[in-house]
Every structure is written in structure tokens, then in C-alpha cells.
């Protein structure tokens, strides 16, 4: 699988994470749960920002180096969102999280686990490769190649 496919599928999976949380927030009553409701809404918003950001042609808009750095930052944020969601779900299933306890697995929880796992699997290598590419590429603007010592003297002679 190429990094292009991983980026596209990772973006779609993190958008899926956000969609699940937005659906639970708006249609399943999580908006009324103190703290958890706010976290569900923030998860949906941040997933949307990361997912749509990954779909943008950042390398064309920002240049290769900055574009790769932006992709790396977005991919890392996506991994943090997905892993954080999985950890929070596990905590709420086995105990309480901010006084909230999730009871039993429903279809929506299975979907959430699936898209969060896929997002983590796809965005982790994308982040690593993008970081490597950003660090490997020299800055292309603002720097001119240096001339060897004595260049001007040899040209005038």
C-alpha cells in the first residue's frame, strides 16, 4: 500500500471516528452527559479538522518540506485521537470515566473500535514517513548555494 492510499484511507477512517462520536453526541443523548458529552463533541470536531486536513494537497499548498511536516502533524493528531478514543472506551467499559460507565457492546461501539483501529494502523506509518521526508528535504527558498572561495577572482582573470 502506498502512502497516498494510506493517507486517503486514514483520512476517511478518522472522519469515521468523528462521525461516530457526532452521531452519539447528537442522536443518542450523549450531549446531556456532563464532561463526556463535551468530549464527544470535541472528538467529532477535531476528527473533522484532521480528516479534511489530510485530504488537502498540502505539499502543493505549502511546498514539499512544510507540506510533509503538516501531514506528519495531522497524522500524529489522528493517531492521538484514535488511540485516545480507544483508551477512553476501554476505561468506560471496565470502570468509570468522569463518572460515566458504558454498558455492553452495541453495533456503534463495534464500528467505533473498527474505525479507530484502522485509523491508528494507517496513520502511524504515514506520520513516520512524513516526518522522515520533511527532515530529509532541504529548505528550498531563502537559501542560495555558496560559491567556492576565490570564485570571483577566478572569473575576472
Determine the fraction of residues in helical runs and give it as a percent range: over 70%
Low-confidence stretches: none
Shape: elongated
Proportion of β residues? under 5%
The main pleated sheet reads as: none
Q: What is the string of helix and strand elements? A: HHHHHH
Cα radius of gyration in angstroms = 22 Å
* Mean pLDDT over the full residue set: 88
How far do the termini sit from each other?
Answer: 57 Å
Q: How many helices?
A: 6
Instruction: Please identify the structural class as seen in this structure.
Output: mainly alpha
Number of strands: 0
Can you describe this structure?
Helix content is 75%, strand content 0%. Helix 1 crosses helix 4, helix 1 packs antiparallel against helix 5 and helix 2 packs antiparallel against helix 4. It is mostly helical. It is built from 6 helices and no strands.
Task: Summarize the structure in short.
This protein has 157 residues and is mainly α. The protein is built from six helices and no strands.
Topology:
Elements (H helix, E strand, L loop, with lengths): L2 H25 L8 H20 L2 H5 L1 H31 L12 H30 L14 H6 L1
Helix pairs in contact: 1-2, 1-4, 1-5, 2-4, 4-5
What tags apply to this protein structure?
157 residues; 6 helices; elongated
